Amino acid sequence: MALPNDDAAKFGEYAHPEKLVSTDWLAAHLDDPGLVVAESDEDVLLYETGHIPGAVKLDWHTELNDPDTRDYVDGQGFARLMADKGISRDTTLVLYGDRNNWWAAYALWVATLFGHPDVRLLDGGRAKWIAEDRPLTKDVPDRPRTDYPVVERDDSRIRAFREQVVAHLSKPMIDVRSPGEYSGELLHMPDYPQEGAVRGGHIPFAHNVPWARAAAEDGTFRSRKELQDIYEGEAGLREADDVIVYCRIGERSSHTWFVLTYLLGFPDVRNYDGSWTEWGNSVRVPIKRGDQP
Amino acid sequence: MTTADTLNPRLAEIVEDFNAMPGKERLQLLLEFSDDLPALPERYAGHRDLLEQVPECQSPLFLAVEVAPDDTVHLFFDAPPEAPTTRGFAGILQTGLDGLPADEVLATPGEFTSQLGLNDLVSPLRLRGMAAMLARIKRQIRERRAA
Predict the structure, then answer these.
(1) Mind listing the domains of chain B with CATH numbers?
(2) Nearest chain A residue (CA) to B85
């Protein structure tokens, strides 16, 4: 049974206000049956240092990825993971995390690949909850195991693969990495481990809008007007566009995917999770250097 | 010869401690290393320019390396509390290497980071940050010696 939406005035202006909850809303509903809160962080130990009471941990690196193939878990793997966490198909799942919900948005995108019906983000994430002096605990909840159905992953609507990006060249695309990564200026230092690519630059025709621009100083999402100014004004996107977003491995671009899809209401946005670690290493695909699309 | 043979006894003990524990408790041990990481001494505190950044770490980490006249190595790290994993990695290196002769630090195999039993719990991508710290520590020692 889904929980009521957060009717905070700020969310009302977004295309899909039901995808966000405020810290006030969450504090008031923490004990409601039907709700599971999950923390998803860049730092794998942050949850252990203290988390929102009752929240379970969901780690992208170690839990949402397939260990052998560069891909996400399959339907069975996702069902097992959700069951282990005590999440049912009808659970209202609220995700939050560090760094402006960067990884929480990634987890939300993956949950959406499996069509989890009600998954929302905590506006402002972990930082806002802590800034407001709300309670944290180190107690790990022991949620009873659920029976989550096996639902096959649907990669067709919100995920883009390399071949599709090749076919998409010259159509609207947003590179959400930092300007240095986009231009290819970031230097590769010899003899040091690098997780990057053999070439620096960006996919031709992609506009650069660093993902964190969608967040205000307190980590909450910017207003609809501000977001429109950035994505429609500066980057020139139109709601009817077929848009692909990418970054390094698809995490930061999940955040932008969330913004375009749910806050601005663009119906056709896909995340290219292969991103620069695939494109920048691929044979026979073009790249562009410099700060122009 | 396995890599463990060339690890100094302190680091070898840390590797052993991690591997003696069941999976989830290893994260708790890593958290202890994070909590116990010493703060920067006064001469470095507030002087980020004296420290080298390790961009391979997911969160900001800065380190300084000193080689004393008796050739022992001293290590200093700075990472915020919001980055406990990075702090934990720094703590392991601090505990395992600080005060050792430079040659012993230089002999530390870069692969030791993969022997802590953390690959499945932390992910190899994150563990690369620790390997990068070690590589930078070694490079700084070589530079000090060449100077």
Answers:
(1) 3-40+53-146 (3.90.1010.10)
(2) A45
Cβ contact B131–A61 (<8 Å): no
- Span B127-141, average pLDDT: 91
Strands A119-122 and A20-21: parallel
Give the predicted TM-score (pTM) of the model. Answer: 0.91
User: Do A44 and B85 count as a contact with CB atoms less than 8 A apart?
Assistant: yes
Annotated catalytic residues of A are: 247
Q: B125 and A195 in contact (C-beta within 8 Å)?
A: yes
Structure tokens at A183: 């231009």
**H or E stretch including A282?**
none
Q: Is A44 on the interface with B (CB under 8 A)?
A: yes
Instruction: Strand B52-53: give its sheet, edge to edge.
Output: B52-53, B62-67, B73-78
Q: What is the largest CA-CA distance in chain B?
A: 45
Contact B77, B15 (CB under 8 A): no
- Neighbouring residues of A209: CB distance < 8 A, sequence distance ≥ 6: A174, A175, A176, A230, A231, A234, A235, A256
Q: State residue A47's pLDDT score.
A: 96
ipTM of the complex: 0.82
Q: Do A42 and B31 touch (CB under 8 A)?
A: no
| Of residues A42, A62, A194, nearest to B58 (C-beta) | A42
Quick check: A131 contacting B, CB < 8 Å? Answer: no
Are B81 and A49 a contacting pair at CB < 8 A?
yes
What radius of gyration, in Å, describes the C-alpha atoms of chain B?
Answer: 15
Q: How far is B137 from chain A (nearest CA, A)?
A: 12
**Cα(B129)–Cα(A146) distance, integer angstroms:** 36
Sorted by sequence, the CB contacts under 8 Å of residue B110 that are 6+ apart come out as B131, B134, B135
Q: What is the token pair recorded at A250?
A: 């698809």
Say if A187 is an interface residue toward chain B (CB within 8 Å): no
Name the residue facing A192 among B28, B58, B135 (closest C-beta).
B135
Q: pLDDT above 90 covers what percent of chain A? A: 87
Query: Which tokens is B35 given?
Result: 């909590």
